[in-house]
Fold this protein.
Amino acid sequence: TKFVYSFNEGNKDMRSLLGGKGANLAEMTNIGLPVPQGFTITTEACNDYYANDLKIREEIINQIDEKLAQLEEEQGKKLGCEKNPLLVSVRSGAVFSMPGMMDTILNLGLNDISVNGLIESTKNERFSYDSYRRFIQMFSDVAMEIPKYKFENVLDKFKEVNGYQYDTELTTEDLKKIVEEFKGIYKAEIGEDFPQDPRKQLMLSIEAVFRSWNNPRAIVYRRLNDIDNNLGTAVNIQSMVFGNMGEDSGTGVAFTRNPSTGENKLFGEYLINAQGEDVVAGIRTPQSIDTLKNDMPEIYDEFVQATQTLESHYRDMQDIEFTIEKGKLYILQTRNGKRTAKAAINVVVDLVKAGMISKEEAILRIEPNQLDQLLHPTFDPKALKTAEKIAKGLPASPGAAVGKVYFHAEDVVEHVKNGEKVLLVRQETSPEDIEGMVSAEGILTARGGMTSHAAVVARGMGKCCVAGCGQLRVDEAAREIRVGDRIIKEGQYLSIDGSSGTVYIGSVDMTNVEVHGNFAIFMEWVDEIRDMMVRTNADNPRDARKAIEFGAEGIGLCRTEHMFFDEERIPAVRRMILAEEVEDRIAALDKLLPYQRDDFYGIFKAMDGMPANIRLLDPPLHEFLPHDEPSIQALAKQMNIKPSDLKKRVVDLEEFNPMLGHRGCRLAVTYPEICEMQARAIAQGAILAAKEGVEVHPEIMVPLIGTVNELKLLRPLIENTVNEEIEKSGVKFEYTVGTMIEIPRACVTADEIAEVADFFSFGTNDLTQMGFGYSRDDAGKFLDEYVEKGILEKDPFQVLDQDGIGKFVEMAVKLGRSTKPNIKLGICGEHGGEPSSVEFCYRLGLNYVSCSPFRVPIARLAAAQATI
Ligand code: PEP
Ligand code: MG
């Protein structure tokens, strides 16, 4: 096997073997750019090293020696030579870029002899000793794991003793002494002299880069970015060029376009007389690339030419590292530049307009989840650099929020009325907190997962939320948060980032990311290519309108219970629940009917001809009642009933497993009058809207069907009620009646159910809960560990488990279509806005996906990508 490639033997399509950096160095060599030459040791060699008990096999060593000899020959220099020594850099190069995660060693090849050779060839003694001490420092840190501070202490001592401020003030004599002290540290730590043999230096460095594949930060980075642990890294050995050889030398980094805005203008910085790490270390302030035009006009022109060549060659924005050595330009690296969502959109739209890529390519290049950034305010990256993190929870609903913390919904409402910005902080939220959630800038909870109440409701509202932040001890009674040894009291500021789950102390500045016109153009292309519909989960006209702005093509789920928590209505809801006799219940329902009718009327108006899927009441009734003693007392007084009677009813309704309890269609079976009231309200709302000339398409959805017999009982009740209203009003409209498919038994018997249902909507939240047997409200406690230990690849409440839960969906699709070929199919669980799940739905041939308003553009893009 060939394990080592010279740069001129590879090309850009060999990433998986040569790594990104190696493949691009090869490609740049091929297109004639000035690249310092070298060779790449393949990722296969890295994997072989791991398979071979952390040893590099003879065969590979021989190939390295061969390429090294060839490089020495070409360069006319030799490693360790006393006259004209070859120096090389050793750098990692993974298949997918992992910036800063793995190791680099520069100036390799220096020793007590070759340092003289370097002096001779460069005529620069100070530079030569400075290079030597840098090499000892980097080699010791990276290859031998000697703590960095030991070396830094020495440098600091020299600076202090001599009254220097910068490393650049160290004299040649200082550097000579430093080299000796560094070698002393090495010997004390390792028990051997610093290796003088350059080949030994090289082999130890190559091994170190192989090992750095599995350093903790690389492992974490791969987990966060979904990179396979088995890919391994390549190692690039490249002859050194020096940007620190005087005023005619320098080094820098540039992007072919602005990575935050996408503006088509070279963007970057450089330092004269400096080596690569000086730019990063921030010791001196680099200059903008523009001024290179004045400093070195010819080099500037040559560089601009090279950047243009690279951009048109790769047909994407490039991030390029360069070095100027004594008036000669070298390109050290190029890669596709990392960019913000805004820049990403602007770049692809520009590239399509310039005829460089097709619309399809543009669409495939945007990561759907990245669009989130365009739809929510975010923290100012500058402010974040100095912000203090205090905890991390789940990124439950994206965006950024800053506010004073309050622990009770009423307090939030009150302080917001006073014009303050407020965060609602709770152990976990419950439906009673809804008004506090609406008023707050953002929501922070200590418990609960990605589909907890706080998370679902916040996403629906497009409100920033960090949930399940277990490091926080939220003491609602004492009105304070304890985290570590710190106490945050009511009224103090926190800042939360719902896109990362991070919690910061104090108030962090925000930027409002404006949506550039190119975003709209891009989304038009998305819609040209997309052929699966995207709807939204919305419970009120405001959210529905927002979703339509974002491109929703209907409502896929209106959770009617969310309409029940309103301050004005909740008394009637409670009276309905507490009614002992049917008559009392009907009287309470009569009070609710007009509210619901108005809600539905508003929704039909907002949808203006698009379909609206309205689901009948789903949650267990006890969710609408208070549970603690003071609230029970207060409610009893308000309702004019005995506290003991109220308590008894609360206890009656309590369940051990409410999620498996008296909820969903089971409520409609035992209290048909609730179902009837809602069906009537839907019909009346539709009639009101239709009378104003609005086209209405109600889809009435029964939740939590487990057997067809439930639907057989309920469907006629719904139809009779709606038909009665239609006849009474004389206004005609079409409507359909269907069901959620969210219980495994419903999937298995979907052929029977389809005979009675006009449509299915997959409730993958409950289907995941019941399919796995994981409580959606409690699973947060162990799911992280499941993912960490590799038992599950992803949190199945976030990303649909295609192998298991997906099979249920697939089966239900097949069975449903076997008895009703044209049955309308959709999904309304949280997965409806998650790109890989959207793609899965497309493959199964669903008619639509439905997601919260702020995810609609993401789902549109994911759906378009699925078709390409
Ligand atoms: C579901 O279960 O997937 C669903 C959409 O319903 P809910 O989240 O309201 O239970
Ligand atoms: Mg459900």
Observations:
- The first strand starts at residue 4 and ends at 6.
- The chain is about 45% helix and 20% strand.
